[in-house]
Design a protein that fits this description.
mainly alpha, MetI-like fold, 78% helix, 0% strand
Length: 230
């Protein structure tokens, strides 16, 4: 028990003194996680509007596929993207493997199904009369969609937060595609795994505490948004 308490005390000291390795891992995680979420949002929200606002053959199957992809194993995504980005892969000539861009690509794949699925539910829950009323008053398709967005914005923002929560805490993609390069692609999760294997419990715990705080904050915001929606 003394070992654990000593580790906690030292980890708190590393956080308070803004240890360089801790801050680097946090900065990389927030950078790639935020960029991944922004790109995934740009893909997912318009897709959610198209799917939720239309009836077409195969829609139920498409929704089933999207919901299934929400549970994609991170290591599976990492392996598939690795195959494409490796030197012998079709995108190997771009030299993206073991760069932040590679992590972003993998994390976008993880986040898109989550944001899309929750976005579809959010948009579908908006009263259909909102869109119909907007069109009746002379709004075009984009303006009518914006009216729907305003009505369901709380749940849509919750979808985006859920996507960010998915990517900030994953390790498979970051490890396989980033290579865990210090100061470049070493995220909080890969740093925790590395420092634990090295036996530096205090440093790993310090990063883990920050990650837990970020994840807790994300879930707190998500619950508050869900509460407002209900």
């Amino acid at each position: 028990m003394g070992f654990i308490f000593e580790g906690i005390a030292r980890s708190l000291h590393l956080i308070v003194t803004a240890n360089a390795e801790v801050m680097q891992a946090v900065a990389v995680s927030l950078k790639v996680g935020s960029l991944s979420t922004l790109i995934a949002t740009a893909i997912s929200i318009p897709s959610a509007f198209c799917i939720a606002g239309r009836s077409f053959k195969g829609k139920r199957l498409l929704l089933t596929v999207i919901n299934t992809l929400m549970g994609l194993p991170t290591v599976a995504v990492g392996l598939i993207v690795y195959a494409f980005l490796s030197r012998v892969g079709p995108l190997g000539r771009f030299g993206l493997l073991f760069t932040p861009a590679a992590i972003v690509i993998g994390q976008v794949i993880l986040a898109v199904p989550i944001i899309t699925a929750i976005g579809i539910t959010a948009i579908g829950s908006v009263d259909k009369r909102v869109r119909e009323t907007a069109l009746t008053l002379g709004a075009n398709a984009k303006q009518a969609s914006f009216a729907v967005f305003r009505e369901g914005r709380t749940a849509i923002f919750a979808a985006i937060i859920a996507g960010f929560g998915r990517v900030i805490a994953e390790i498979g993609v970051a490890m396989m595609l980033g290579g865990n390069i210090k100061g470049v692609t070493r995220t909080m999760t890969t740093a925790i795994a590395l420092e634990t294997s090295r036996g530096d419990f205090s440093l790993a715990l310090a990063i883990a505490l920050i990650l837990l705080l970020i994840v807790f904050s994300i879930n707190l915001i998500f619950q508050r948004l869900q509460g407002r929606r209900s």
